[in-house]
Amino acid sequence: MRQELRSVWFWISLAVLALLCVFLVYPVARIFLASIGGPAGAGSGWSIIASDIRYQRAIANTLLLGGAVTTVSLAIGVPLAYLTARHDYPGKSVVSILPLVTLVTPEVIVAQTWLMMLGNNGLLRRWLLEAGLELPSFYGWFGLVTSMSFIYYAYAYIGTLAAIRGFDAQLEEAARSLGASPLRARLQVMVPVVLPAILASALLVFTLVVGNFALSMILGGGIDLLSVKTYQAAVSETSSNPVLQSTLASVSISIVMSMLFLQRWIVSRGRFEVVQGRGAAPTRLRGPGALALASAAGIVVAISLLPIASVVAGAFTLSRGPVMRWGQWTTANLERVLSRSPEPLWNTLSYAGAATAIAILLSAIIGYLVVRRRNPVTPLIDYVTALPLALSGTALGIGLIHAFNVGWLPLTGTAAIIVLAYVIRRLPFGLRSASSTLYNIPRSIEEASISLGVPPGRTFLRVVLPLMVPALAAAAVLTWTTTVAELSASIIVYSGGRETIPIQVFKLIEGGLMAQASAYGLVLVAVILVPIVVATRVFRIDLFSSRA
Amino acid sequence: MRIGIEDLAVAYDARRVIDGLSVAIEPGSVFTLLGPSGCGKTTLLRAIAGFVPVAAGRILFGERDVARLPAHRRNIGMVFQDYALFPDKTVFDNVAYGLRARNVAEAETRARVGEALERVGLGTLADRVPAALSGGQRQRVALVRALVIRPDVLLMDEPLSNLDTKLRHQVRETIGELQREAGITTLFVTHDQEEALAMSDRIAVMNAGRFEQVGTPAEIYRTPCSAYVADFIGAANIVDATIASACEAGGLATAETRGGRVAARCPRALPAGAVRLVLRPEDISLAPAGGGDGLAGRIARRQYLGSRTSYAIELAGGLRLSVDRSGEGHDRFAIGDTVALLLDPARCLAIAP
Asked: Which domain holds residue A460?
C-alpha cells in the first residue's frame, strides 16, 4: 500500500473515482433515496405505485412490450445473420450496411417516419385507403412493436453474425464425419455455441425497449408505459412529483440492471473456447428460394432505409401547418430551419462536440488506468463506469435534475448539464473501445520504450496513445453520432433556448408540424452522416471493428 | 561492465519469489538464465531491467546501484520475446527512438542508426514499418534498437523462441557476433538448453527462484550438481543406486544398481548409502552379448535418426536406459538383440540423491 501512495497513477485513479462519484453515483443515489420518501411526510413512491393500478399496468405493459419486441427482433435479425454468414445471395453487400444505418438513425426520426407513412394522416395509409384497404390504427401496440423491432433487430443481427462468424466450421464437419446429418450437425454443434450470443443480444434488446423514450412517447397512443409515465411525472407542470418520478426511474433501473446481470451471467457461462475459428465459406444460393430470401432481406433493408428517405422527402415538401402537400416541392422548410432559427443546430453541434471530446479523453485515461495501471481503486472505477448501462436516458435526466437543481452545484438551466448527460450516457461505450484496443497493444511495447530511456508518462503519450488513435477516432465518431441524436435525457434536463435538434424535432412532431420536423431531421442526418463518411472514406477508420 | 546481484529479493504481494540471490557477471560475458517456465528467470531479468520492484538487495551496474532506479534511468538495452517493435514507426524511427530520448544530435543519430542497420544488413529496409518485415528481420531490428544506445547491459528475454529452427541458428550467430563486437555484458533468458549451451560464457540453471547451479556450459553439462540440472541440460539416464562406502571428491565409487554393479566418479564427496547416477545416453557403448564384461541388456526400442541411432535397453531388474550411438555401424543392433553395455567410469557420475 505504501508503494501505491507514491504512484502518480494511484492519485489519478482516485481523482477519476471522485469525479465519477460526484457526477454519476451521486445522481443515481439521489434517485433511489428520493423514491423512499419525501421530506414532509409525503408517502413513499413505492406506496403510490402499489395503490395505483395505472402504474402497475405501465410496468406490466413495458415488460410485455419488451418481450414482444425482443421476439420479433430475433425473428428478423437471427435468420438474416445466418443467411449473411453462411450464404451469398443477390444484394448481400447492401445488407452489410444495415447495422450502420439502423444504429445511426435517430429514433425520433424513425418515429416521425412511421407517423408520416402510417399515422392517422399518413401517406401510405391514405394510398391504401384509396385502394380500399383500411389499416388498424398505428398508435399503440401495432406501431410500437413494428417500429421498435425494425430498429432493434440490428442488435440481434450484429450479435448473432459475430457469433456465427467466430464459430469454427470444422466442428460441424467433425460432427458430420461422425455420421450426423447436416441439419443435425448444425442443431447439435453450432446452435449451443451460438446460443449464448443470441440470448445476450435478446436481453440487450429488452433493456433498450424498457428505456426507449422517443418511440414510446410518439407512437404509444393511450398505452401506459414506464418510460412515458416517468417522463410525464418529471416534466408535468401541474403535477410534477419528485417522489413518483424517482420511484418510476428506480423501477426502470432495477429492471435493466437485473437484465444486465442475467446477460453477464449467460455470457460468462456460455463462453466456450473455440480453439480455431475457421469460418465456413459462404455458399451461393440459387433459384426461386434464393430470390425469395433475397427479397425478404431486401424488404428489411428498405424499411431500415425508409426514415432517411422520408425525412429527405418531407424536408422538401410544401406544407400548410400540419398538412403536407406531397408532390409539391419547396426549399422553404430548410431555409427556415437554417437561417431563421438555426439555434438548435448550433446547440447540438456545440454540446455534442464538447461531450465527444470529454467522453473520449475520459475513456482513454480510464481505459489506460483499468487495463494497464491496476491498483486498489481501479476495480471500483470499472464497476462505476458500467452504471450508465443500467440508466435509461429518462432516469439519468431525473437523477441529474435531483442532484444539481439547487445546492452546492446548481447546473440546471446550463449547457453543462446537457453535456454531462451526453458524456455519462456514452462513457461505457467509449471506454469499451479504449480498453479493447489497449488489450491489443502488447505491454512489451511500452516496456521497450521505457527500457530505451523514455519515462512512463511520456511513453504513454509517445507510444501508447498513437496506437490508440484509430480506435479512439472510431469511438469518437460513434459518440458523436449518438450524442447528436440523444433525446431522452436531454429533454428532461434542457431549459428554454437550449433546444437541440432532436428536442426541436420532438416538439414539432407533438405540434404536428411534420415538414419543419423533417427539415430539422434532414440537418440532423447530415450532421450524423458527414463525419461517418469522412471517417470511413477519407481516414479509412473501421467503425465497427471493436463492436463485433 | 561488471554486473553484480547481491542478496536480491523480489516479492509478488507478500510472497517472495526470489530471495537472497547473489551472482557476479564478468564484463563483456554472456550470462544465461536457464530453467523451465515459472522458475523465476524472467522475473529476475525484469527485476534487473526495472519492471519488477525489488524488495531487498542490490543490483550493481559497475559501481552504480540501480535497484531503486526507475527502468528508464538504468541505461539498459532490452530485447523482448515478441520484439516489441513500435508498429506505427519505421525501422529507422524504431532504432533511433532511444537515441532521440537521450537527446543525441539528429546528425549523429542518423549516422549511428544507419551504421547499425547496415551492420545487420537492414540498410535498405530503414523506411519500412515492422509489419512489412520477416520474423528474422524484426528480430535484428529489435537487437540493434537495444544496442545502438550503447547500454550498460543487454537483457534478452527468450529472443529466439518465435523463430523457426533454421532462422534461430542464424540469429544466434548474429547475436553472438554483435555482442562480442560491442563487448556488452549480456543477460540471456531461455528455456532452451541447446541455445544456452551454444551462446553462453556461463549458465545459471534456475529452479523455484534460486540458482541450482552456476557454471560454464561444459561444467553444467559434464558435472551437473543435481538430478534436476542433469535432467534439464541434455538427455540423461538418472539411476538410483547405493554405494557401500563413503567416496571423497573426485574419487571413484562402486555403485550397486538394479541392473548390476558399475564404477562411478564422485565430483563431490558422498557418504555411504543411496546415491544417484547420471549417465548421458551418448556415453554408453554397446557391444554384442559376450563381447565384454559390461552389464547385460536387451534392445527394447530402436529409433534410426540418420547420424545416430537411439536405443532403449532393458536391463535386469526392469531398469531401462537410453543409449545413443553414432559413428560407424551405429544402427547395427535390432530390437530383441542382447547386448553388453560398457560404461566409462569417468563419464558415470554419482551425485547425492
From this structure: 1-36+337-548
